[in-house]
Design brief:
This protein has 188 residues and is α+β, with helices and mostly antiparallel strands. The chain has 6 helices and 6 strands, in the order H-E-H-E-E-E-H-E-H-E-H-H. It has one domain: Endonuclease, Chain A (2-Layer Sandwich). The strands form 2 sheets. The chain has a 3-stranded mixed beta sheet, with helices on both faces. Strands 3-4-5 form a 3-stranded antiparallel beta sheet, with helices on one face. It is extended and about 75 Å long. The N and C termini lie far apart (70 Å).
Length: 188
């Protein structure tokens, strides 16, 4: 079983297209060599791109679940877990998004740990992933289902702030006691 946890798949800018192509080729290779790839993501910050998710969903054996409420589920971690039949699994946890620009040119930090070398840490990461996978907050995403695509598009628009209308907010601004005392001391 191959596990792949990816929050916020994104496509790259024009300057990162070559890296994006290389990244997509690597993911395709992983998908072909694994039994199943499991991907978790959210609409948190509205940065996930539908096209990127659709491409991942088109890979063989790839299953995607997504949380459409970025206010409740703010999955921001970046983690890749690869479980191998040999017992030589590996995990990568870091700050890089799954984009060519982030992985190839960004200033990112990623830590690798292995199933054999850091077994406890690997098992904790795997258990946490499986807990999130089973959480009802994460819904199955099927790009062939028009209802899924509409729901994802609406959630991304909401989370990106495109549909936010500024509303005036009124409040009373009162200085704190220590601020009032400081003003007296300064003679204001």
């Amino acid at each position: 079983m191959g596990c792949l946890a990816v929050p916020g798949p994104k496509t790259s800018t024009n300057s990162g297209r070559q890296h994006e192509h290389e990244l997509h080729g690597s993911l395709r290779s992983i998908a072909w060599n694994c039994l199943t790839a499991f991907i978790l993501t959210t609409t948190y910050t509205g940065a996930t791109e539908i096209q990127a998710l659709d491409e991942l969903a088109g890979l063989p054996g790839c299953r995607i679940r997504i949380s459409l409420d970025g206010r409740r589920t703010r999955l921001h971690a970046k983690a890749w877990l690869f479980q191998r039949r040999t017992g030589f699994g590996s995990a990568y946890v870091g700050s890089a998004n799954l984009s060519g620009a982030a992985l190839m040119g960004g200033l990112e930090w990623t830590v690798k740990f292995t199933e054999r070398g850091q077994a406890d840490l690997f098992e904790r990461a795997k258990a946490h992933f499986e807990t999130l996978w089973e959480d009802n907050e994460f819904q199955v995403y099927d790009p062939k289902n028009p209802l899924h695509r509409v729901a994802l598009g609406e959630a991304l628009k909401r989370e990106s702030g495109e549909d936010i209308v500024a509303r005036p907010t009124f409040f009373d601004l009162e200085p704190k006691t220590y601020q009032q005392e400081f003003s007296v001391l300064r003679g204001e």
